[in-house]
Specification:
Elements lengths: L2 H10 L10 E4 L3 E5 L5 E5 L12 H12 L6 E2 L1 H15 L1
Antiparallel strand pairs: 1-2, 1-4, 2-3
Length: 93
């Protein structure tokens, strides 16, 4: 599946797409970012004093799938689109 097809499906679900290159997902109370040196970081917006966590790619993919299938989602960034494209290519192979 190509990026333009993925974008079209996300827009149909009314999920906002952010042009930020490192943003993966904006959930209701948190955001997931791709770190420049690899890996991911989850930050909390409601309680900023909560410590950030460093989830695996598989955990980030599970969260992304949950938000794509119905959990409230404020948007997806460019790193999120790349992750979707990567996993869709695996499934199609």
């Amino acid at each position: 599946m190509r990026k333009d097809e993925i974008r079209k499906r996300l827009r149909a679900k009314r999920i906002q797409i952010y042009d930020h290159p490192r943003l993966v997902l904006k959930g209701t109370f948190y955001s997931v970012w791709k770190k420049p040196d690899g890996g991911y970081i989850k930050t909390y917006e409601v309680e900023p004093e909560m410590e950030a966590t460093y989830p695996s790619e598989q955990q980030v993919w599970r969260w992304l799938k949950l938000h794509l299938t119905g959990l409230p989602c404020r948007g997806i960034g460019m790193a999120g689109l790349e992750l979707i494209e990567k996993h869709m290519a695996r499934e199609e192979a």
